[in-house]
Amino acid sequence: MRMPPFQLHTPTSLDEAISIAEEMASKNQEFDWVAGGTDLLPNYKWHLNVKPNVISLAKISELTELNETHIGAMVRLHDLVQSSTTHPVLAKAADTIASVMVRRSGTVGGNICLDTRCYWFNQTEQWRESIDWCHKCDCGTEADCRVIPNQNTLCVATYQADLAPVLMCLGATIHLAGPNGVRSMALCEFFQLDGMTRNVLQPGELVTHLTLPEDVAEWHGDYQKLRQRESWDFPEAGVAAVWKKNGTTKPTELRVATTGLESIPILHTKEVDTYLEGWSGAESINDLAESIRKAVKPVQNTWFSPSYRRKMVKVLTRRACAGLVEEGS
Amino acid sequence: MSEDDNEDEMVGYRQQPGKLPFAKPGSGGKNRFSRPTNQDSIPESQGGELAQPWGSHRHDDLVSGQVIGKPTALVDGRWKVTGQAQYGDDIRLPGELIGRIIRSPHHYARVLSVDFSKALELPGVVAIATGADAENKFGVLPVTKDEHAMAVEKVRHVGDLVACVAAEDEATAREAERLIEVEYEILDSIHDMRDGLKDSELPIHDRGKYHIGDANVQKRVFQEFGDVDGIEENAIASHKENWLFAGVNHAATEPHAVVANWDPSGRLTLYTPQQVPHYVHRALADVLEIPMHQINVHRTFVGGGFGGKSDPFPHEMCSAILARKSGRPVRITFDREEVYWINRGRHPSRIEMNLHADDQGRICGIETDALIDGGGFASFGHVTTYYNGVLHTAPYEIGAFHYTGARVWTNKPASGAMRGHGAVNSRCAVETGLDDLAEKLSVDPIDLRLANLLPPHSATITGFRVTSIGMRECLERVKKESGWDEKFRKMPLGKGIGIGCGFFISGSGLPIHWDPNKFPHATVHLKIDMDGGVTVHTGAAEIGQGSDTVVAQSVAEVLGLPLDLIRIRSKESDTSPVDLGSYSSRVTFMNANAAISAAMQIRDELLDATVEITGAEREKLVIGDRRIFAKNDPAVGVSYLEALHKAQEDRGALVASGAYRTPPMGRTHKGAAAGLAPAYSFSAYVAEVSVDVETGQTKVEKVWAAHDCGKALNPLAVKGQIIGSCHMGMGQVLSEEMRYGRSGHLMNPDLLDYKIPSVHEMPQVFPIIVESNDPEGPFGAKEAGEGPLLPILPAVCNAVYDAVGIRTAELPITPDRLLKLIERKCKAEGVDDPIKLPSPRLEYSGLQAVLSKRAEDHAKRDLERRLNDNRQPYHNGALFGLDPTTPPDEVDEKWAVNVIPSEEYLSEPRLAGSAWKHTERRHRGDY
């Protein structure tokens, strides 16, 4: 396993980073951003979509701000877990990511922008040659998708990051910066349903930070994650649920989002709305869990089978919502 | 008794039909039969005048109280923890080239041409080799040499070697890889092991007249012992299960790496992390066509082997070939993916297990059918095919044993030997089967086992000679310490407890490569010069299991020296005596025995010198810490160095050579040698698990792990082996699997997707060491490296049953697999929610009292046998009313041994048994 050669750029400010990116674009040179490197560099070693240039964000201190409502893209996952200002559900989700060593290096921005994963994609070059290449990375070979053959338009690689569903539920806004200035949007609008495109980032654009609404502390909830091992493994399914109760037995507001099931994380607004109005406690939770199970469409490209992951979404949703029927939450 | 008495019974070392030397253990080079020891001479340090529950041992009077039995840090530990140990890839020679291997992207194909002209033009590329450079075959077993350094005609799995290149640096070598053009003709590949049993137009290998029909059957075994025809009539309860075991890989921390260098005198040195340096030594000589004496195999530190570094490997040949072509050292280091291509992991297996019990709660029949998936090459498979059967004929006394086994080639990376070689899967099936039998008989599964154990110094149904056996104590200890009686079938849904046992060889009785008449199994050389330090030359491969330490401990103990006076030289074949390497758990038993026998010679010389200096009576002298003195008058004595210098006066350095050979053992039927060992280890584990019935996730909470290792020479290392075995076995039972996708590709050749349990999954393990004091083992020791792995699998499976009432028959028990079974159970029980499932409960039947009584009687019988030197032979079958002193097939023709299937059997064979439908070509008349 050998890192392919690339030119590393280490800007010390956001402006410098963007101007380097702009310059690359003007010369038609391809590049990748690297934050913690725990996703990109293993992929590079596998020769997955390697670029000749890599711009490191490690030295840009303005991206590391962290408080209740502001999370810089370069905040390390470990620091997010440890910080007393982090929302408990977000801290819980962050604490399940990979291993403690990866969390020391990995960042919030990197986790949000995690590349999608697939058994037919995350393999060495030799291995991919043996399946006659992969649609997601070996462009130019005209390779078909190996998961769902005979369609080479959409990539079905799976988004397996833990933070996004929690942040979506908490109503996070994502802030981007690029050669054409800055822009912001709800995190739900950031993702784009395709395992290759993944999100709205334009060439030269990067995530600078996320903001959470002022009332974030009033939301309670839970994050549940399915995986084979309690360390290292990416989520085979993840369910975040947050709610407000305002002292009543019924939730006044409820949001549920899932990850690890499709090429993007999904906020299940429609399913929640169906059951929120006539809420009846455990029964509604069960109905909601069932409707979310039906709504997700995993494919056979991770460790567990799609049918098992769907079944587990139901169990995880029930468990994530368990606090709704418990006293005092 | 004198040695002459033994000579009457045994002539030479040839195996003698049916001769089982029950009373007279033998060991140690020429001194096959040691002098009997005086019961009174047991040293204080080993219990002194206290009662010796297992009797005395012939090495008791060699105990000096130094290191044996004390927790001892491994002698090479500091090299590792300070990062100074040099593993395969740490070897850096001046002017080295980097080698890379070009591998097949196809499952099965003919290699039509290899064009490397473009690659050779690339600046920095120095040499390229292909199959044409080395056409001689090799393989770990002399009977099944079927590998080439690189493909000569065909590639047999994705990742099979086609060519190799050496370049100035890795980047260039990788670039050259891309420039080598290989033309293939793709052939129809097979991936399901069941297809391997069928006739094929183009079998993966062609063994000429020895080929079995036109099938991909590499090896088949048929064996019947005992009253097979009577099973049906005798049985009142039967268990039948069809198992599917996924293949698993050793996943050693260090990937394979090798450096080859030809020195100016024309000799080859191969630096390689090998478990078995001697076999690669032989294979290199064959492949390179040079005599063995021109090769020095240098075993580097080994970052974990577990069986995965015990074959001679094609990449080792490649580095030597490239080094010869280029005239420079060549280093090849594997990516993790390549470790999976070379594999040699545990065979994917389909095992049908049938167990039968009679009205006395005796195991009146075991019928096993094992089809194992060998992948593209033979490797150790010949042996594995036997081991899947014969290694579960103990520790129980059984009425009949019927085994059919077959190993087939498929277009996958080759399976081979892995920790617990061949015994693990079928043991899991047997032990879960016994649990089920106990359920059907309504008795406690531990009592069922306790009432059916073979006694010490007995013969199994297949004729293995069991000497010491601590099985009973293992079972009793785990039963007590786990709180079994309060927990078994009494815990709530989702919580369970289960038992599993193990039995494993402590060294294989017959070496793979030579006639035991000509060479010992293990040899150890000692040299002591005037500085007093002892240089030990041994070929035993230290692979992290502590073989250097155990040899050093043995020498230190006999000579009364601290460990820092002992230096082990075990790395180079130039200086170390030939040794068969670290496999089949042979090192402690064989090398420590050889080391003791060498040290005894030095000890004699030191005692002679002491007599000369002090004039003391030789018989009264004892060896203590660096001092030799009279026991009755400790003031009379000399220091170790004084004695040493006296002994050196006329001759300089003291040198000695000690060796070990196994005693004659076993019977004479075809395959009788497979599974023979000079001693066997036993183990019993209880596992406690939690099962989440909604997700199917199983968590092992606690394991009580009792292992009979004879004598724990180093209790620290034994406990480490037990805990490590738990981890490895737990991986296989719960999460590890080499998963092949729908196109036959290995989907998870990396350590993220190959799910080795993490520290979070590790249960609390309570290691329990049981010491049965083996009469032939060094200081009483047997193996502890592989046996402890076996019981964890069935213990977990049985605990899962206790938790949710579900018997699994497919490993690993991943959550998705278990959930499917839970759903099926819910349907069967008419339950809509799994948390409403009933928890298994058990009411004892009348048989329980019968078993308890028999277990008590047998405990007395065993005690009597192990303390009485004049014991009678005991052959399996006595429990069924046969004469214990004679092999049963000699007194009852129903018990005749049979190794050829009958016409009747062939009309309705089981899965692996159907391999016998093919006729070997030489018998078919086409040769």
Give an account of the 3D structure.
The complex is a heterodimer of chains A (329) and B (927). Chain A has 329 residues and is α+β, with helices and mostly antiparallel strands. Chain A has a domain at 222-324: Enolase-like, domain 1 (2-Layer Sandwich). Chain A is 29% helix and 17% strand. Chain A has eleven helices and eleven strands. Chain A has helices spanning 14-26, 40-45, 77-82, 88-95, 100-105, 108-112, 125-130, 163-169, 269-276, 282-295, 306-320, and strands at 7-9, 31-34, 53-56, 70-72, 173-178, 181-186, 206-211, 220-226, 237-244, 253-259, 266-267. In chain A, the strands form three sheets. In chain A, strands 4-7-5-6 form a four-stranded antiparallel beta sheet. In chain A, β10 (253-259) and β11 form a beta hairpin. In chain A, α9 runs antiparallel to α10 (282-295) and α10 (282-295) packs antiparallel against α11. The model of chain A has no long low-confidence stretch (mean pLDDT 94). Chain B has 927 residues and is an alpha+beta fold. Among the domains of chain B are: 88-187 and 256-333, Aldehyde oxidase/xanthine dehydrogenase, a/b hammerhead (Aldehyde Oxidoreductase, domain 3); 511-660, Aldehyde oxidase/xanthine dehydrogenase, molybdopterin binding domain (Aldehyde Oxidoreductase, domain 4, 2-Layer Sandwich). In chain B, the strands form seven sheets. Chain B has a seven-stranded mixed beta sheet with strand order 3-5-1-12-9-10-11, with helices on both faces. A six-stranded mixed beta sheet of chain B has the order 7-15-14-13-8-29. In chain B, β9 and β10 form a beta hairpin. In chain B, α10 (424-441) runs parallel beside α18, α14 (547-559) runs parallel beside α15 and α15 crosses α16 (640-648). Mean pLDDT of chain B is 92; it is low at 1-39.
